Amino acid sequence: MEATVAYAKAEAENLMATELRLGLPGTADDEQSQTTKATPPSTPRGKKRTATFDAVEDATVAEEANNNKRDVEAAPPVAKAQVVGWPPVRSYRKSCFQQASNKQQSKATKEEAATPVSNTTTSTTAANGSFVKVSMDGAPYLRKVDLRMYKGYRELREALEAMFVSSNNGSANLSEFAVTYEDKDGDLMLVGDVPFEMFASTCKKLRIMKRSEATGLGSARQ
Amino acid sequence: MIYFPEEVVEHIFSFLPSHSDRNTVSLVCKVWYEIERLSRRAVFVGNCYAVRPERVVRRFPKLCVLTVKGKPHFADFNLVPPDWGGYAAPWIEAAARGCVGLEELRMKRMVVSDESLELLARSFPRFKALVLISCEGFSTEGLADIASHCKLLRELDLQENDVEDRGPRWLSCFPDSCTSLVSLNFACIKGEVDSASLERLVAKSPNLRSLRLNRAVTVDTLSKILMRTPNLEDLGTGNFTNEFQTESYLRLTNALEKCKMLKSLSGFWDASPVCVPFIYPLCHQLTGLNLSYTPTLDYSDLTRMISRCVKLQRLWVLDCISDKGLQVVASSCKDLQELRVFPSDFYVAGYSAVTEEGLVAISSGCPKLSSLLYFCHQMTNDALITIAKNCPNFIRFRLCILEPRKPDAMTNQPLDEGFGAIVRECKGLRRLSISGLLTDKVFMYIGKYAKHLEMLSIAFAGDSDDGMMHVLNGCKNLRKLEIRDSPFGDGALLGNVAKYETMRSLWMSSCNVTLKGCEILASKMPMLNVEIMNELDGSSEMEENPGDFSKVEKLYVYRTTAGTRGDAPNFVKIL
C-alpha cells in the first residue's frame, strides 16, 4: 500500500486541532461529495456525509462516514476526514467530555465566585485543545471557551451572551457589541465571515467590543 | 492406578487456579468430568454466542459466579452497529431456571434490560455481586429492583455503562436496615442523585470499601460521606467544580485525612485546578489514580499532584500532561506498573502534547511498567527500541498514534523495527495494539516472536495477505484478532482456517475480504459462525452487485457449539 503518500507531508507541523472533513474548507455542512480520487470500483456510495465531532450524537451519520474511510488515504493531506471509530476511544469517554463542556457552559450563566478560574491555566492553548480567551470591553476579567463545543455561530453567540451579559449590564443581548477575534496572523477579524469550522481553526482569541469602536469592520453578518 | 474418593478429587480440583486448568482436567475421563462439573463454582464465557446458556447451566448446576462477554471489542468504537446482539436475557433466564444459587454475575458489552435485572433480583436469594461493564439497555429502574430485592448485595459495580436515567429513586431502594455493601460504583449514572439518600445509605453500610460517585454528587455531600467511611480504600469523587465553598473543601480535607486506607482515587469530574491541593494529604498513600476524565487540569496541576504520589502503581491521565509531565511521573513514581494516557482531542490527526519522548522517559524511570495504553501524535523506531530494552516486562502494550499510517517522525520509515523490538524483548507479551505506518514486516516479527500473544489489534497496517498469514501461522496462543482498514483479503482469510477453531474470535472490517471468501470459510468450518455485516445505506452493495466478489464491510468469525444464533438482526448475515 502506498501508505506514505497522503500522510508524509509534515502535517505534524499543524499543531492546532482542526475540524477535519473531506473536501475543501468552506463547503456546506451537510452532504458533500468526494472531490478527489476515484472511489473503489464497487458500488457508488453516493453522497457522503462527514461525521460530526460528537461521536455519540448521530450513529447513522457515523455509519455513512464509515464509507469515507477507504477514501481517507486518497484525500489530499490538507483536508482529512473524520474516521469512524478512530482514534479508538470509547463512546462513554467521548460523551463524558461532551457533558463536561455542557456543564462549563451552564455554570457560566451563574454568578461565579471571585476566583477567576479561567485565568489559572496560563499554558499554551495547544495543550488545552481549542480553548480561547474571551475578553469583553468593560468586564473586569476574561473567560475561556472551547470552540470545539459549538456547532456554529449561533451556539457560540448564545454561550457568549450567557457568559457576559447579565442583568448587571442591563442589555439582554449582544446587539450593542461586535464579536471579533484575533486570527493566526494576529489580525483582528469580525466573527461570522467565514464558515464556522474555518473560524474555529484560526481563532486565537475572542474580543467583544462596543459597536462604536467596531465601525471600521463593516456591517456585521450577525 | 490409585483411586481417590470423589470428595478427595474434588478437593484437589479446588486448588486449580484457572478456568483453563479446570477445563483440562475435565477432559481426562468421564469420572473427572463429572466431579469437576458438579463442583465448579465459577464459569467464564468469553463470547456469549459460543455456547448456549442452557448448556452451561445444565453442566454446572452449582454455578455461583458467572462471567459473560458479549459484543466484540471494536463495538467500543462504534464499529458494531446497534442492535447487533449480545443480550443478557437468555443467560439470566437460564440461570434463574437452573442455578438458583447464583451469587455473582459479571457482564461486559452486553445488552441488559430492566426486565432482566428484575428477574435477576427476584430469582437468586444469595445474590451478592453485580458487575456491568460497557453494557446498555437498562435504566435506573432496573437498579431500583436490584437494590430492593438483593438483600445480601455486596457489590454493585457499574463501569462505563450507558444507563437511562429515570430518576434518583433507586438509591433509596436499599433496605432500611444495615446493608452488606462493600463496593458501590455508580459513576456512570448520568442523572441527579438524592444526597440525603446517599448519605443514609453510606451510614448504614459499615463494610463499604469502594465507593465511586457520579458527577451529580457535590463536594459538600462527599465530605459528609467521607466522615462515615474511614475504612474506604477506593474513592471516585463527585464533581469538583470551582463553585465551591471553602468550608466544604476544608471539611473534605479533614475527612480525607481520616481515610488512612484510601489507596485509589478517580472521578474528579469538572475539577478545577484550585481544588487540587485539597487532595495533597492523600497523595503519598495512593497506588491508583485516574485523572483521565479531567480535561480542565493542565500539566502543571497534574504534575504537582502526581509528583507527590510516590507509591503510585496505576495512573490514568489525559495527554494534557505532556512529555514534560511524563518526565515528572517517571522521576516520582518508581513503582508504576500500569499507565494509560488518553487523548483529549478526538480528531483523527488531532494535536496531542505527548510524543515518543514522554514514553521513553517513563520507560527509563519506571522499569516495572507492564501495562500500557498510550495515545500520542508521533513515534519513532529508536524510541520503541529503547522502550523495549528498558521495560522487558510488558504484558499489555497498546500504542495508538493518532494519525493513521504515520511513519517514524525522524526517519519517515515504517515502524516495523520498533514494534519488532517490543515483541522480541517482551517475551511475556499477551496483548498488543499497533499503529502508525507498518508493512508486512512487522507481522513477520509478531509471528516470529510474540509466542504468548493472546490478543492483537491492527488498524491501517500491512501490505498484503502475507501480513495476516504471519500472525495466524506464528502466534500459537492467539485468542482474539481484530483488524480494521488493512489490505488483507480472501487469501489471508482462508490461508489457515483451522486456526480459527483455536481462537475465540476474528474481526475484520474495511479489509479486502469478499463474500465468496466468507462463504468458503463457512462451508469449510462448520464449527464457526461467520457473520457479515454490510452497511444499510439504501443502495446496499449486496443487492447491486450480486456477484460474490463484492467486498464484505464487516466480518466477525467465532467458534461456537451453539450453531447459528436466532437473535441476529437483519443487517447481520450468518453464512
UniProtKB/TrEMBL annotation, chain A:
Cellular component per GO, a single term: nucleus
Biased composition annotated in UniProt, kind: Polar residues: 97-107
Organism: Eleusine coracana subsp. coracana
Cell location: Nucleus
GO BP terms: auxin-activated signaling pathway; regulation of DNA-templated transcription
PB1 domain location: 129-211
InterPro entries in alphabetical order: AUX/IAA_dom (IPR033389), AUX_IAA (IPR003311), PB1-like (IPR053793)
Name the UniProt record assigns to this protein: Auxin-responsive protein
Main location: nucleus
Subunit annotation: Homodimers and heterodimers.
Automatic annotation (TrEMBL), chain B:
Domain F-box: 4-45
SUPFAM superfamilies for this protein: RNI-like
Keyword line: Auxin signaling pathway, Nucleus, Ubl conjugation pathway
Chief localisation class: nucleus
Gene Ontology terms: biological process: auxin-activated signaling pathway; pollen maturation; SCF-dependent proteasomal ubiquitin-dependent protein catabolic process
This protein's pathway: Protein modification; protein ubiquitination
Cited CDD domains: F-box_AtTIR1-like
Any one GO molecular-function label of the UniProt entry: auxin binding
Localization per Swiss-Prot or TrEMBL: Nucleus
Gene3D superfamilies named in the record: 1.20.1280.50, Ribonuclease Inhibitor
Alphabetized InterPro entries for the sequence: COI1_F-box (IPR041567), F-box_dom (IPR001810), Leu-rich_rpt_Cys-con_subtyp (IPR006553), LRR_dom_sf (IPR032675), Transp_inhibit (IPR041101)
GO CC aspect terms: nucleus; SCF ubiquitin ligase complex
The protein's assembly and partners: Part of a SCF (SKP1-cullin-F-box) protein ligase complex. May interact with auxin and auxin-responsive proteins.
Record-given protein name: F-box domain-containing protein
Organism name: Eleusine coracana subsp. coracana
Lineage: Eukaryota, Viridiplantae, Streptophyta, Embryophyta, Tracheophyta
Gene name for this UniProt entry: gb15839
